[in-house]
Amino acid sequence: MILTIIIVLGILMLVAAFLALYLKDLLSAIIAAGAISLMASVIYIILAAPDVAMTEAAIGSGLTTIVFLYALHLVKKEQGEKND
Amino acid sequence: MIKRFFSLFFVILLIFVFMPLVKDIKPLSELGVTSQKYAKDGAKELGAANLVTSVVVTYRGLDTLGEVTVLFITTAGIGFLLRKRSTGKNKKRKASEILKSGTSFLLPLIVLFGVYIFTHGHLTPGGGFQGGVVIASAIVLLLLSDINLHTDHNILNWLESLSGGFYIILGLLGLLLAGGFLDNRFLPLGKFGEIFSAGAIPIIYSLIGLKVGAELVGIISKLGREE
Amino acid sequence: MLIAGAIISLVGAIFLFLGALGVLRMPDLYNRMQAGTKATTLGSILFMLGLGLGYYNQICICKIILLLLFVIFTNPISSHALARAGHFFGIRLIKRSVLDALHDAEKESEL
Fold this sequence. Notes:
The complex is a heterotrimer.
Chain A: H1 2-22, H2 26-46, H3 50-83
Helix pairs in contact in A: 1-2, 2-3
Chain B: H1 2-23, H2 33-46, H3 51-59, H4 61-81, H5 97-119, H6 128-144, H7 153-177, H8 201-225
Helix pairs in contact in B: 2-3, 3-4, 4-8, 5-6, 6-8, 7-8
Chain C: H1 2-25, H2 29-54, H3 58-89, H4 101-110
Helix pairs in contact in C: 1-2, 2-3
């Protein structure tokens, strides 16, 4: 049962990774990259590693996503200024 | 076409290189020599209820020092790259009243939770890194709700440098008074499972938490102020 | 006690399911957000309460009350911020809807 959940989560992680690579919209790609970390943290909890799961959830799916979003915002703003 | 061919060729080459490694892999059925020692004697030797913390802070403390240094260099790099842009026009939309009052209520609670995570690192899951990130997420909330509370970069830099310096001083104290660099046993171990126990581990983890928190708050407020 | 907790958890799980169904079936962004927030807030409150009642001890129930307070305070604020951002981004309401209070308030403040 637990093994099945882990395998399903792993497949979902692969799908999210492909989405993050191949989506044209960068915002969706960033969200997909955050989802990978979220599923990884669930796997860590199942494998009884709460310390790593906390780090992964906080840094991987929280902070990194926010920093990427800020960076995307900056880049888009700069491109808009160039086009003007 | 040639590019495709090359990438295919490269992948096949990598498969040939890594195949012997994968073939010999066996699932670990028992712990290795070092991990066995950590698992058996860790709780008794260092007095920390959370074994992961005692490994991260004490046994492998030098690696943690390296990680903190990497984070410090990242912060310095971001500060260097985002240095000279002027904050020109500010056409940001005003935050709504609900978000503002919610933030002013939630902010102390989130910071308190972060402090709880890193002061209880030796008892419950979590520690300096996680607590620092939670504190940084509180600052994100602050930036979103545009309450005018300027994060003073001088104070942040002082906090970061002081906590980093004290971290190394504590490590050297461990070298002088106890077994080795970052040994926690120069303070009394206390009663197992209480907050003032496990020697210097809570102090060291609090310092790491302060340092990581200050660094991440610096990164986020620098990025956020660019808007 | 265990059975009461299980029943409350089940009701919470039904609410969570309905929330997920609403996210799939609702016509526009704001309706979807409402389904995804209100139903999941109530669902998670009931689910956690059921857990606390089922495995009753004092520390557990204290932690669960703290968690519930946190969910109650954070969930509506975050969904409010998201819906507001959507409104200012220019996402229209579905044609059948009758009231757009934020739009009206903006018009009033412009006049």
